[in-house]
Amino acid sequence: MNKILSKTRNLILILIVLSFFILSFLLFDIYESHKKDKDFFKIIILLLVPILYIYILYIFKRIYDIANFHLKESTKIFNSQKNILLITDGKEINDANRAFLDYFSYKTLEGFKKDYKCICDHFIEEKGYLSAEMGTDSWAKYVYLNPNDNLAKIKRDNKIHIFKVFVQKIEESKDIENTKLVVTLEDISNELAINKELREQKTILQNSNNSKAQFLANISHELRTPLNSVIGFSNLLFDTKLQKEQYNLLKNIDNSSRILINTIDDILNVLKIDQKNIELENNYFSFDELIKNIEDIILKLSINSKNIFTLNKNIDIFYKVKSDKARILQLLTILLSNSYKFTQNGNIELEIRLLNEIDKNIEVLFSVKDTGIGIDKEHINSIFNEFFKVDILNHKDYSGTGLGLAIAQNIANAFNTKIEVESETDKGSVFSFSLSLEKIKEEKKNSYNYPIFEDINILVVDDNKANCELSKKILEKSNVNVTIAYSGEEALEIFKKSKDKFDLIFMDILMPGLNGFDTTLKIREFDSNIPIIALTASTSIIDKELANEIKMDDFLSKPVEPKTLFETIFKYINKVRTNEIDYKSAKTNLINDILNIEVLRAKLSNNDLVIDILRSFIEEINSYFINIIEELIKNDEESRNMLYSLKGMSGNIGANALYNACIRIENKYKRDINPEFEDIKLLKDEIENIKNELKYLDDL
């Protein structure tokens, strides 16, 4: 910049000298032409020469000041830049700013040029970075022609700095070789260091999340293993002769175990939210089943609640569809729980409405509406964020984890849909979503019938003896020859001795010593074709992927229903006794005391009168007692009166199970104990049972 300023000053001085000589020449010429009038021209010359000369000086002074001002401003701007700025022809530096001199510890550019010809002399030649020569081009020309992501590495004071390099032409010229270039070097060393630290922190966080995932998967396995035995042995007990009370107790054990399994799955949903990987399992169910499950949910939520619940069913409840019923119920449970939490002494409505039906598909709308506290517009777009909680008027009653709606939206996403919300503060909210479901032809199915296989040998590998015993009992019901191995090592020994004996292997994954994966790999060394099925309590996505990688044929999560177990055997083994599968009956034998009609007949000795009394009883159930469940939830005097009446009527007609359910609640009232959810649900189930029993009165 000083060079430019000096050249400008010299140019102005030359112009001043030239103008003086030109002016002198003009005046001399005028004088020669009019020299006769000497006095007149002397005066003119004496006056004009200084005036013109001063005027010229003034003009050039103004020009000089303006040029000097702009040059100083340009120099100030040039030197104020934090980035290094150079003016170069690609070979030699013509000018440089203060940042350049400070970085290389020189007072002047001339001092730098005495030691170095080019900044490229400091480039560390390394792949991916600029060097003095880039092929046949200079580094500056290369950067100009290839302007994206050019980096230079320079070492100063034992510290390596990385610069991002930009090049622009000072003036338009087609000939890049003879054009001066402005080079900018931006030091991004700190930025890269921060990014590196962030990547390291991200890696640490990912490792932490992986540890969390593994911990949850291990906990899941440890909990599922004994639960698998409980559910499995319960299923076996259902196939034995049971009294009604025994059946109900066993049903409670089975239901509680399955609820606990669902609770474990809810814990894993926190992990699945991070992984955005909720898997859907397709199963068949009718809307009648779904609605009964929803009513059970409402019954539990309604305990100690003064809200009025309404269920609007604008759909054929006998539609049978294929989807993940458990996930639909989980989604609805979250939405309904929120409505009950944020609504007091109000109304809650669930609407299930058929929107569209095309061929085998139906579109169904689920809508949960409440008259609760609502959500303000400021927060309505944030309620589906993880751990988001609105501090609504400091209501401590509305506490929670802030995960519910995030999980719900994630489940909705798995169904390729989205939860929509409309809300107004102090007026309530409406949460809705629609599902596209595959409609199937309904088939009546009784309890599971076990197929009979012929000459099938299966090796079961599991370190848990209860699980082995359970698998053996289930498989032996279908004439399967079962061999048990309690470890991977034992399984290998058995397989080596008689590898041609087995048709299929069920393999647990998480076993001490030789785990299921390693055992599978070793078995594959002897036999690459035998079907090996992972049968494990592990729900880890990583385990599923690894099972697929090592060529395990399938992956079943415990507890496995007998139907799923045998469907898997059918899939991989073709040894059934005939083309038509021969089934044996395994229907549950129950002592049916839902309605002991013989007691009533003995009392009346008239079948027509018996039918009339039972018809009157059903009419009472469908009229006076229609709201008894809701009344019991309210727990007022009217509900107790209704219970006493129902107890008397059910005892008189021989509806023993319903009578006992009433007695159970009445005994709690006598001890000033409020009925629990299980008590009211049992009564509800028995009312449904007696109604189903009396559907066809004329056949009695």
Automatic annotation (TrEMBL):
<dbReference type="InterPro" id="IPR036890">
    <property type="entry name" value="HATPase_C_sf"/>
</dbReference>
<feature type="domain" description="HPt">
    <location>
        <begin position="606"/>
        <end position="700"/>
    </location>
</feature>
<keyword id="KW-0808">Transferase</keyword>
<dbReference type="InterPro" id="IPR001789">
    <property type="entry name" value="Sig_transdc_resp-reg_receiver"/>
</dbReference>
<dbReference type="InterPro" id="IPR003661">
    <property type="entry name" value="HisK_dim/P_dom"/>
</dbReference>
<keyword id="KW-0547">Nucleotide-binding</keyword>
<keyword id="KW-0067">ATP-binding</keyword>
<dbReference type="InterPro" id="IPR004358">
    <property type="entry name" value="Sig_transdc_His_kin-like_C"/>
</dbReference>
<dbReference type="Pfam" id="PF00512">
    <property type="entry name" value="HisKA"/>
</dbReference>
<feature type="domain" description="Histidine kinase">
    <location>
        <begin position="218"/>
        <end position="439"/>
    </location>
</feature>
<feature type="transmembrane region" description="Helical">
    <location>
        <begin position="43"/>
        <end position="60"/>
    </location>
</feature>
<dbReference type="GO" id="GO:0000155">
    <property type="term" value="F:phosphorelay sensor kinase activity"/>
</dbReference>
<feature type="transmembrane region" description="Helical">
    <location>
        <begin position="12"/>
        <end position="31"/>
    </location>
</feature>
<feature type="modified residue" description="4-aspartylphosphate">
    <location>
        <position position="508"/>
    </location>
</feature>
<dbReference type="InterPro" id="IPR036097">
    <property type="entry name" value="HisK_dim/P_sf"/>
</dbReference>
<dbReference type="InterPro" id="IPR011006">
    <property type="entry name" value="CheY-like_superfamily"/>
</dbReference>
<dbReference type="Pfam" id="PF00072">
    <property type="entry name" value="Response_reg"/>
</dbReference>
<dbReference type="GO" id="GO:0005886">
    <property type="term" value="C:plasma membrane"/>
</dbReference>
<keyword id="KW-1133">Transmembrane helix</keyword>
<dbReference type="GO" id="GO:0005524">
    <property type="term" value="F:ATP binding"/>
</dbReference>
<keyword id="KW-0812">Transmembrane</keyword>
<keyword id="KW-1003">Cell membrane</keyword>
<protein>
    <recommendedName>
        <fullName>histidine kinase</fullName>
        <ecNumber>2.7.13.3</ecNumber>
    </recommendedName>
</protein>
<dbReference type="InterPro" id="IPR008207">
    <property type="entry name" value="Sig_transdc_His_kin_Hpt_dom"/>
</dbReference>
<keyword id="KW-0472">Membrane</keyword>
<keyword id="KW-0597">Phosphoprotein</keyword>
<feature type="domain" description="Response regulatory">
    <location>
        <begin position="457"/>
        <end position="573"/>
    </location>
</feature>
<dbReference type="Pfam" id="PF01627">
    <property type="entry name" value="Hpt"/>
</dbReference>
<dbReference type="InterPro" id="IPR036641">
    <property type="entry name" value="HPT_dom_sf"/>
</dbReference>
<dbReference type="InterPro" id="IPR003594">
    <property type="entry name" value="HATPase_dom"/>
</dbReference>
<dbReference type="InterPro" id="IPR005467">
    <property type="entry name" value="His_kinase_dom"/>
</dbReference>
<keyword id="KW-0902">Two-component regulatory system</keyword>
<dbReference type="Pfam" id="PF02518">
    <property type="entry name" value="HATPase_c"/>
</dbReference>
